[in-house]
Write a structure and sequence with these properties.
Blueprint: E1 4-8, H1 15-23, E2 40-45, H2 49-58, E3 62-64, E4 67-72, H3 87-95, E5 99-106, H4 121-150, H5 156-173, H6 186-195, E6 203-209, H7 219-231, E7 234-238, H8 240-248, H9 251-261, H10 267-278, E8 281-287, E9 291-298, H11 303-310, H12 312-316, E10 318-325, H13 326-332, H14 335-340, E11 345-347, E12 357-363
Parallel strand pairs: 1-4, 1-5, 3-9, 5-6, 6-7
Antiparallel strand pairs: 2-4, 8-9, 10-11, 10-12
Helix pairs in contact: 1-8, 4-5
């Protein structure tokens, strides 16, 4: 089961530098618009101290962390929705991701050109959002033509769908993102999902600041935080250049480097963790002498669905799931102690998996 975040923004905001730091994939980065043409893809491990604790308890031969995919998408410019720059490619790539990481330039540097000549985070965010809205408006208008044609029949449901699409067109035409349209019922939610609109995707803002502002708040970053607060979006402040330096260091040198900067963890760890939360993902674990493994499912997944992530046979032949809560296991220190305290729980296929569950699946095929 793959989950991915698309890294977007105007040209020269630090997207590719950030992507390199996250994934150490070596994506090309330079002081020119459209440096990134085809999207670069990197698979990143999700930091999780709980898995380290499980590894210390079980001493497995291998430890496998959860992962999330980041896609570095070409920089967007005004007119992208009409094909300007690399607009059509840019927007097609956004349609394929689950969530958007919107990198916003929050630093002044005369040596790094800005596509609009000056640094203004509010304007930059509005440019990107406007192009996404315009593309969605085009999608909705084409869908509406088809819906109105079908609504000429006596089918009341088809007429209701056409009315919903009309309401969405008016909403977008007012400069509002699709995800803020108030829906009434599951049917409208289904119609909305079926349109695959760009502005329904959850967004995280990443403020790319100068190194001197990494431990504080630049006025540019404050502007982004105010915008995000109104939208209910998450914000992470990083210095892409600093993160690139951290990525080049050996693991045992990184902590000292972060301490010198007054940071408890890297910005990249925060970006990855926030991306995980943005997609409403949770982690459950399987452990045995061979492997301690973190697995990813969407919040609300059932035990049988989670079992299917581990192996399709587990879901097909699911009998029951034996669940231990991570906090109990970490506190007591062994599986035997868990049993002695009566903390091994047995659940059927409809059990809703919780973040941190340690699961053993009984199955038969």
């Amino acid at each position: 089961m793959g989950f991915n975040c698309g890294i977007v923004g105007l040209p020269n905001v630090g997207k590719s530098t950030l992507f390199n730091a996250i994934t150490t994939a070596g994506a090309e980065a330079s002081n020119y618009p459209f440096c990134t043409i085809d999207p670069n893809v990197g698979i990143v491990t999700v930091p999780d101290e709980r898995l380290d604790v499980l590894a210390r308890i079980y001493h497995p031969l291998k430890t496998v962390y959860s992962t999330i995919e980041f896609v570095d998408i070409a920089g967007l410019v005004r007119g992208a929705s009409k094909g300007e720059g690399l607009g059509n490619q840019f927007l097609a790539h956004i349609r394929e991701v689950d969530a958007i990481v919107h990198v916003v330039r929050c630093f002044d540097d005369p040596n790094v050109a800005h596509v609009d000549g000056s640094v203004n985070p509010r304007r930059d965010i509005e440019v990107v959002e406007a192009e996404l809205i315009l593309k969605d408006l085009d999608t909705v208008e084409r869908r509406l033509v088809e819906a109105e044609r079908r609504a000429k029949t006596a089918d009341k449901k088809l007429k209701t769908e056409a009315e919903f699409i009309t309401r969405m067109r008016e909403h977008l035409a007012g400069g509002r993102l699709a995800r803020y349209l108030q829906l009434s019922g599951d049917e409208e939610a289904h119609w909305l999902r079926d349109m695959h609109l760009l502005t329904t995707k959850p967004v995280m803002y990443v403020c790319n600041v100068h190194e001197k502002d990494i431990a504080g708040e630049s006025h540019h970053a404050v502007m982004v935080q105010e915008i995000a607060a109104k939208e209910g979006a998450s914000v992470v402040t990083v210095s892409a250049e600093v993160e690139a330096e951290i990525a080049r260091l050996a693991p045992d040198e990184r902590k000292a480097f972060l301490n010198d900067l007054g940071l408890a963890e890297s910005g990249m760890d925060r970006v990855v963790r926030e991306g995980y939360a943005l997609l409403h993902l949770i982690t459950f674990f399987t452990v045995n002498p061979k492997e301690a493994h973190a697995w990813t499912v969407r919040r609300g997944a059932t035990a049988s669905q989670a079992a299917g992530v581990v192996h399709t046979d587990f879901e097909r032949g699911f009998i029951r799931a034996e669940i231990v809560k991570f906090a109990d296991l970490a506190r007591l220190g062994s599986e035997q102690a868990i049993k002695d305290h009566g903390l091994l729980h047995v659940h059927g296929r409809e059990y809703i998996v919780e973040d941190g569950d340690v699961m053993y699946v009984r199955f038969n095929v």
